[in-house]
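[step 3/7] fold_predict: job queued, chain A
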Amino acid sequence: MTEMNMAKAINLALHEAMAKDKRVIVMGEDVGQDEGVFRITEGLHAKYGDTRVIDTPLAESGIVGTAIGMALYGLRPICEIQFAGFDYYNYHQLESHAARFRNRTRGRLTVPMVMRAPYGAGIRAIEHHSESREAIYAHTPGLKVVIPSGPRNARALLHSAIQDPDPVIYYEPKAVYRLFKEDVPEQMETLPIGQAQIARKGKDITLVSYGASLRPTMEAAEMLEEEDGVHAEVIDLLTISPFDAATIVDSVRKTGRCVVVHEGPRTCGLAAEIIARINENVFLYLEAPVKRVTGFDCQVPYFSKERAYLPDAERVLDACRATLSF
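[step 4/7] structure written:
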């Protein structure tokens, strides 16, 4: 085991994938000699050169469109979009082409590409640098969407995404890049796309989250146990589409209560779909309505108000206590 942060774990996965498979290439703005805005592509250009680590023009649509062509002809491109707020410019390439080729060709062609993008708030960034718009991609048939929450699952999920035959959106919670370290095994590992993990076992209430929001959710679970004697079960989704409804349903059937946490806007956010699945499958097991703790239906505010926008442990704790006392 080696202790590392998420940024280093993702970098390790890229090095491993490129060493293992010559079809894997990395492309994006400043990913080569400058090694990326967040240094995620550190050392790749020096090791593999500019035929496999490609600095592209400032043109997100061109980056993704080129990657689609490469994937169709046998390569395994990994695109980096510098910030998720810039990927609107390439959305039409993903929706109109990458997501549709399997269906368009009746399975004859697939698009094995990965689009990496740092997303979310929490680093006091400027406009278009803090969006959390994963629901847009989750609502797009033909795309898979994964969001790691820590170093170990970040490395494993990236390997799974690279090996997947279909296009995968790999959203990286940049607030977590260097927030903490954990042990990452020496041996390369993968995690199944579409399978959640139970990050903390419990019996009294189910908490569902993903990405950067998992940490305040875990903090709230610990506070519940210390202060209220309540044992919360915490589910880390890891995959947003297709998300693992079965694990959530099984947990809520056991606990009878649930709170869903994410930093994206509330309206039409993933929490709404999770609550719908719970109502469809285990409504009669519920002891209280399911609550949401989310971002707000506004742009992420600037610096001094940014923390008030993000779900924190206190907001999660308040929602849990309201659910438990219903």
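[step 5/7] annotate
The longest strand covers residues 114-119.
The first helix runs from residue 6 to 20.
exit 0
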